[in-house]
């Protein structure tokens, strides 16, 4: 059984981008001309994913609406002959993909958000994507590589990257055994206590067994149900490997990372890239 479903938790409040996120979900903030959530869905599509499960709350209807049809807008664009723009609007959800929405009624952590998708995912292997982590990869993408690992070896995987030890308390950090298998995980350890400097970033390929583990774990760091703790509980019976992805990760949950992502995509853009580059160099 391959990985055909991805859970995308989008219930967070995005407080680091207030006041912009007072009424606009942070996942709808654009990187150049595409919102973060669309970039995540497009990466999932390139990985062969056919089913999206959005874990959201009642204040995030704009995300659902983004992937729905907008008849008035489409009719206006068609009547004005704006066929290229119409095509972009109709392709916000890649062909063949479906979207299911479940509610996270209480903000009890990432692990709890993933657990909310249990009734939809069932006993299938699945992926988890965090839209805040935009991984810029000109090839198929990070998730496509992780889905291929599962198809070829049966191993689940976590996307990881080296981080400064001083920043270890911002991440889940893994330990590896002699076979390059993930042997332990800890959520947001104090830098001095971190088992390594290999941090988990927002891409996961998981077995359905993690749902039962999440249902049993007690609140961890920050008083929340941590996905890291659920994964750690099954490491002794499920093979997990680290995926050292290609490309560059931009933490678009931070202002600096978000700005960097916009600059890099702006410089590559066919329409404005050359002029934008000239302007950058004139500063």
TrEMBL record:
Q: What does the record give as the reaction this protein catalyses?
A: alpha-D-glucose 1-phosphate + UTP + H(+) = UDP-alpha-D-glucose + diphosphate
Assigned keywords, A-Z: Nucleotidyltransferase, Transferase
- Write out the transmembrane intervals: none
Record's function text: May play a role in stationary phase survival.
Biological classification of the source: Bacteria, Pseudomonadati, Pseudomonadota, Gammaproteobacteria, Moraxellales
* Species this chain originates from: Fluviicoccus keumensis
Q: Which GO terms describe its biological process?
A: UDP-alpha-D-glucose metabolic process
Q: Which PANTHER family match?
A: UTP--GLUCOSE-1-PHOSPHATE URIDYLYLTRANSFERASE
Q: Which family does it belong to?
A: Belongs to the UDPGP type 2 family.
Q: Cross-referenced InterPro entries, in alphabetical order?
A: GalU_uridylyltTrfase_bac/arc, NTP_transferase_dom, Nucleotide-diphossugar_trans
Per the UniProt record, which EC number(s) apply here? Answer: 2.7.7.9
Q: Where is the Nucleotidyl transferase domain?
A: 7-262
- Sorted alphabetically, which SUPFAM superfamilies does this protein's record hold? Nucleotide-diphospho-sugar transferases
User: Which major enzyme category is it?
Assistant: transferase
Q: What is this protein called?
A: UTP--glucose-1-phosphate uridylyltransferase
Instruction: Please list the GO terms describing molecular function.
Output: UTP:glucose-1-phosphate uridylyltransferase activity
């Amino acid at each position: 059984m391959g990985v055909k479903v991805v859970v995308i938790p989008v219930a967070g409040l995005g407080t680091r981008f207030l006041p912009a996120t007072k009424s606009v979900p942070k996942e709808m903030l654009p990187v150049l001309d595409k919102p973060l959530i669309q970039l995540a869905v497009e990466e999932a599509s390139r990985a062969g994913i056919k089913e999206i499960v959005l874990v959201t709350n009642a204040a995030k209807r704009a995300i659902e609406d983004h992937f729905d049809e907008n008849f008035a807008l489409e009719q206006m664009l068609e009547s004005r002959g704006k066929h290229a723009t119409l095509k972009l609007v109709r392709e916000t959800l890649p062909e063949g993909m479906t979207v299911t929405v479940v509610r996270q009624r209480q903000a009890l952590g990432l692990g709890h958000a993933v657990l909310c998708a249990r009734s939809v995912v069932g006993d299938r292997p699945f992926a988890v994507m965090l839209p805040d982590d935009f991984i810029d990869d000109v090839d198929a993408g990070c998730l496509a590589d992780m889905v291929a690992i599962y198809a070829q070896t049966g191993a689940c995987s976590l996307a990881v990257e080296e981080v400064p030890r001083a920043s270890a308390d911002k991440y889940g950090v893994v330990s590896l055994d002699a076979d390059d298998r993930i042997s332990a995980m800890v959520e947001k350890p104090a830098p001095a206590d971190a088992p390594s400097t290999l941090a988990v970033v927002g891409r996961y390929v998981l077995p359905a067994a993690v749902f039962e583990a999440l249902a049993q774990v007690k609140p961890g760091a920050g008083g929340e149900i941590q996905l890291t703790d659920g994964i750690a509980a099954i490491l002794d019976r499920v093979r997990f490997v680290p995926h050292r992805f290609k490309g560059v990760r931009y933490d678009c949950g931070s202002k600096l990372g978000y700005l960097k992502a916009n600059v890099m995509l702006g410089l590559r853009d066919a329409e404005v890239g050359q002029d934008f580059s000239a302007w950058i160099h004139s500063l």
